[in-house]
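The data are passed on as follows:
___
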Amino acid sequence: GGEGGGSDSPETPSSPQAPLDEGFATDVLNGVALPVLDSWTGNDGAGVAGVQTGPYKCPDDVQQTCVKGGASTSSAKELKLDATTAEAAAKEDIAKNAKASYGGKVYGGILQHDELLSRKVTVAGQQGYRVRWNVDTKSRIDAWVESVAFPSPTDPKTLVVVRIGVDIPTTAKEKAAGPDDTAIDKLVKGIKKAEVTGGGGGNGQDA
């Protein structure tokens, strides 16, 4: 799970636990935190943190829940990428991200994609790289997917990869409800170094 937008929401159940850092979804293992935008929800985790918004029944499988927008953290190692630089990691991951988020049965598969941007970006104070695609699926839903890679602000040897997926709104109602591609820029801009880091156990705070 945890593959940005699309059908695969992060595994971490939404527990009543208070977030490690209010307003952020913290990945304690990779040392980064994603901003929780207005009307989005977030989940902390070790190795994966996620944010999502707009749950709905998937187009080709109403038993499953899809989300209008989502983002999740991971690492190049965890995603089994060969890349050792941020640029190479983002370029290598984008097709995998699109396939994981929108290539499944629930959207009927991907018909085609266009690359919208591929450029350097500063993330959490680190020199990173981002690649964004516009993806057409066989269902009526098309999407933006973006892979952003950068060295972890807590461990330069770890390449963090953030996968983002947002359904493209088509009707006036969808456009009014959002999100749209401005959410992607807000997410990327808002990524920061995690306040709480460590292994799976957290930092010994009392629950």
Summary: DSSP finds three helices and ten strands in the chain. The mean pLDDT is 89.
